[in-house]
Each structure stands twice: as structure tokens, then as C-alpha cells.
Amino acid sequence: MHRRRFLTDAGLISTAVLGGTSAFSRLNGEDAPTVPTGLRILFQGDSITDAGRNRGNYYANADSGMGGGYVYQIAADLLGGNPEANLQCFNRGISGHKVFQLADRWDLDCLALKPDVLSILIGVNDYWHMLGGRYDGSVAVYEGDFAELLEQTKKALPEVQLMIGEPFAVAGGTAIDDQWDAFDGYRAAAERVAKEFDAAFIPYHQIFADALAHAPADYWCPDGVHPSMAGAHLMKEAWLKEFERLMKS
Amino acid sequence: MHRRRFLTDAGLISTAVLGGTSAFSRLNGEDAPTVPTGLRILFQGDSITDAGRNRGNYYANADSGMGGGYVYQIAADLLGGNPEANLQCFNRGISGHKVFQLADRWDLDCLALKPDVLSILIGVNDYWHMLGGRYDGSVAVYEGDFAELLEQTKKALPEVQLMIGEPFAVAGGTAIDDQWDAFDGYRAAAERVAKEFDAAFIPYHQIFADALAHAPADYWCPDGVHPSMAGAHLMKEAWLKEFERLMKS
Fold first, then answer.
1. Which site in A31, A117, B163, B179 is 20 to 30 Å from A125, CA atoms measured?
2. Distance from CA of residue B213 to its chain's centroid?
3. Are residues B7 and B69 in the same domain?
4. ipTM of the complex
């Protein structure tokens, strides 16, 4: 984090254990990190991020603008748990989008917002839309476009902290079949890009794969692509864990 | 809890500390309780509970059927954290409703569902609609109707566990003015009814009052009646705490 700037702000918010001395922190653990004041967090991606959000309500922390998925769950916990931090959460996921479509709207939907933390989950449509014949892409195109997008981002916002979510396909989901074995290449590409740009990486695919030991795909992610609220809860927990790590670093 | 029945079921689910050995529990604390399998939880109330839910999607654990408020946040955490518990969550809140309107639809929207845990938050409209001249009521009518509803419920479902939420009005909200001082009587009545029926009581009004020390009403509950996602997060935390206590008892 660019702590120096934040430290000169109105002060750092101490967080505490849930159920401990203060009700006002979602972040757990005895050495829970501080959340800098005024942190601006942008969520970018496709339908999983969009989650039916009211796109006309695009202001910071707008309830209906968060959609009904992992972004809403994260924002509710962050805002509810850290009322003095003046956090600003934005959701700019758009259903159906692939990396190049993020690039097309990056000026307005990322750079102009000047996020401190940029969380991106993109890639499932880069593969899925090929199966349906609606798109002609490849792992190389996905990886190249993604890296280019992040390079452009880092150039415009050198201090931005990146969080990249692993694109996932949940085995047993109604839309998932053998053709999805090749999707592994996209997941690996996302992880390489995350490493290249020193981004936090959230291993959603593995998280869902592990969760299948506890309940079937229908419970977590009925079609294998779009999580249920229980699946979005897993994403929230994993995201907050990485976010907490980021705030400590 | 009617533990005996649950103990003969497929087994009790152990829960663990968040960030501890298991990712699969929302319930915190070293002596976190077990959640019985197959528990059916019904949320009843007005617009705060309804929260724009898709009423056509009335099945258990239906994502869009949970709405976008505290019920969604609770259900997501419970279902995501306890995948083997076979929990069933239902939301039957309807915007604008007062106690007598719950009574009108109680057979279908409560008794037929046979909940193990019944969570009710009702009362703000019993007062608010009087201010607007749309309703002629009183504390006595509210309390009498509420007690009658619970008596009927206990008769039909003798083992049901009751959780009653304190109706609240958040000072500083755009819809709240001096006329709302008289609303205190309704809050006190809800607490008396909770005591009479040995129900868990969730002190939402005090929780919001305390939260105002950390951020203004606009942050928690812009109009003083309908919580933001941050406000719904406070409700979730308080509800889960009472629920946890109930599971231990």
C-alpha cells in the first residue's frame, strides 16, 4: 500500500476481532490490519461481478449498484464493519464481457475512477463465447489483452493495488462439460498475469473445487459459472482474506 | 432447540472459527455451537425484510427470493458457512405490512412452512402509516395483535423458536422527526411480547443508535427506516449473534 499518503490522512482505522471489543470490523485475527481512510475499491469483471446491479446507480457505495453477488457481500461487510474508514466501493462489472471489452471502456470505468484497489475477475466469457461460436479467441489473446490492460493501468495509476480473481468453472454445473477442460489454460494465464504484475491472486477455481466435497455444484454455482449466494459467500471470504493480506503488506 | 429430533438426523455440523481450521462456518468463537441439520428458518416482516425480493421465487434458499437486505446477508453467510447443514431459508417479508397483515397471510406464509426458527421484524408501519393518516392504530392494538399472532403460532408449532427484532427508527433519517418520539412505545411493546413468548430479542434500535457514534444516519439508514447495506450488515451481525445463542441453548 502507498501507506505514506494514507498516514497523512485523517488517521488509520483500527480494526478488531469480530465479537471482540468493537463490533465495527469485518477483519478478523488478533493482528488485524488497519484499513486506510478514503480507500477507493473498484470491482471489475463480467456477469459474476455485475450480478444484476442497477447500472444507473453508479455512485460509490450505492446499494442497488453493487448487484446481488460477491461484490455486494464484500461491500456490505467492509462498509458495515469500518464506518469511519470512508471507504468507497464501486462495481463496474458488465455481463458478458471479455478482456477486450473491459479495455474498450477502461478510461471511464477504471482510470477516471482512480481506484486505490482494483479487483478484476474476467475470463470465463473469453472461453465460453468461443464454444458458442460467438467469439474467436485463444489463451494467448486473453493473456496478451489482459497484460496490456494492466500495463496501461499501472502506467496511469502507478500506485494501484491489483487483485486478480481466478476465472472458474465449477464441475457439475449445468453449463460445464468436457469441452471445459481447455479452460484450465485461461486460469493458468490469469495466474501468470497476476504474478507478472505483482497482483494478489484469489484462487476461486480451487476454492469451488474444494467446496464440492461439502455440497454439490447446484449448491454453490448451479450452472458452473454464476455462483449462488452460498458460492458468493465463499468468494467474499477468500477476497477479504487477500484484501486483509494486502492491507498488512 | 428441540435437539432430540435433530440429534437423530444425519448428524450435527461442527462449526469453527472464521479463518481457523475450517472455512465452512460463519459462526465464531471457540465454543461455536453446532447447527442442526435440516433447520428451516423463516424471515417475516415488512419492507425491511422484503428488501425488493423476487416474490415469485419463493423456494428455499432462492437467491433472488432473499431480497437485497439483512435476510440476504444472513442467508448467504449461513448457507455459505454451513454447506452440510441442509439449512432452508425463506423470506416472506412484504413491503408496507403491519401486524394484522401478517395475520391475514399467516396460514400460507408461516404455518404451512413449518419453520423451526421464526424471525419477525414488524411494527414500523403500525406507527408510520398512522402519521400519514393511512391507518388507525395504537400501541395496544400492535401489542395485542402481535401477541395473538404468536399465540396462534405457538399453538400450531409448539416447538418453533422465536426471534423478534426490535422495530427501529434511526434519528437523523430523512423520514424521522419529533413525531417519532412516540414510536418508543412500539419498541417497548415488541420487547414485552418477546419476553412473554420467551423469544430471542434483537435490539436493532439500540444497535443503530450506537452506530451513529461512528457514522451518520445517511450511512446506516438514509430515511431512518430502510437500512443501507452497511446498516443491514449491523442487523446481520446482531441476528447471527442471537441465532448462535439460540443454537447453544
1. A117
2. 24
3. no
4. 0.86
Rounded Cα–Cα distance for residues B51 and B137 (Å): 24
Torsion of CA A11, A15, A20, A22, to 10 degrees: 40
Could you tell me if A92 and A142 lie in one domain? yes
Percent of chain B with pLDDT over 70: 86
For residue B207, give the chain A residue with the closest CA: A23
- Structural domain boundaries, residue B145: 33-248
- Residue A164 to residue A49: CA distance in whole angstroms: 12
* Separation between Cα atoms, residue A12 and residue B103, nearest integer Å: 49
Between positions 198 and 217 of A, the ones with CB within 8 A of B are 211, 214-215
pLDDT at residue B31, as a whole number: 54
Listed in order, strand segments (DSSP E) in A38-77 are 40-45
Say yes or no: A80 contacts chain B, CB-CB below 8 A: yes
* Residue A89 near residue A43, CB atoms below 8 Å: yes
In B157-197, which ranges are continuous DSSP H helix?
184-196
Residue A178 has pLDDT above 90, yes or no: yes
Sign of the four-CA dihedral A8, A9, A11, A13: negative
Residue B15 and residue B105 in one domain: no
Same-domain check for residues A89 and A134: yes
The structure's pTM equals 0.88
B37 and B24, same structural domain?
A: no
Closest CA–CA distance from residue A233 to any residue of chain B (Å): 5
Residues A16 and A128 in one domain: no
Q: What CA–CA distances, in Å, run from A58 to A48, A64, A78?
A: 17, 9, 18
Please give the grid coordinates belonging to residue B47.
419492507
Confidence at residue A25, expressed as pLDDT on a 0 to 100 scale: 45
How many structural domains does chain B have?
2
Q: What is the pLDDT of residues A78-114, one digit of tens each?
A: 999 999 999 999 999 999 999 999 999 999 999 999 9
CB contact under 8 Å between B61 and A228, yes or no, is yes
- With a pLDDT cut of 90, the percent of chain B lying above it is 84
CATH of the domain at A231: 3.40.50.1110
Place of cell 453449463: A175
Lowest mean pLDDT among B16-30, B32-46, B178-192: B16-30
Q: Are residues A95 and A26 in the same domain?
A: no
Give the position of cell 454453490.
A220
Which amino acid is located at B69 in the chain?
A: G
